[in-house]
Amino acid sequence: MFSLIVTVTPGPATVIVLRNGIMHGVRPALSASFGAALGSLAWGFAAAVGVAAVVARSDAAFEALRYAGAAYLAYLGVRTALERSPAYGPDPEPEPASTPSGRTRVRPVSMRRWFRQGLLADLLSPKAGLFFLAVLPQFVPQGWAPMPAMMLLSLVDCLLVATWLGFLSFFAHYALRRLHQPVWYRTVQIVCGLTLVLLALHVVTVDPGR
Length: 210
Fold this sequence. Notes:
Layout lengths: L1 H7 L3 H12 L2 H24 L1 H7 L1 H24 L12 E4 L5 E4 L4 H12 L2 H9 L11 H30 L6 H24 L5
Helix pairs in contact: 1-8, 2-3, 2-6, 2-8, 2-9, 3-6, 3-7, 3-8, 4-5, 4-7, 5-9
């Protein structure tokens, strides 16, 4: 239950998924969701094997990760606010490409860009590592070996993240698609961008409380 509460608490990944769902469609939002879920799983495994503890104890490593995460969020925020508003359409359609024989084939649109956004937003958040390091061990059942138990709990958390952000992906695209009217679209675009920049400022100005 606690993990579920933490999962649904808004954070950088939530803003990125909503942004992609509103601005680019379901598939980009889902790709970012899966990236964030994988980043969460990576932090869980890092906590299980002790890597997260090393980061938490090293001031240099922790600060480097914190500022890198803030810089990335600020970059996404500025890019979102200044991005050109494309004409509304559902999800990105595959691009046609010509084969040597002259026939036209469909080239699938790569979702790696959106996946990378969700992944980096989570991996560059040292607070995610601190969560797994400080909270996850409290839920290891008595009598279980700590490492496999923490890996199992990390997998459960990953599934929760993927499910919640996946729901937000569809919600952002279908429930809020009316916002794709030019004025509303531009307003949402600026709000999402400013929110990401404010999150970046929050990361660098608030004491992480280690």
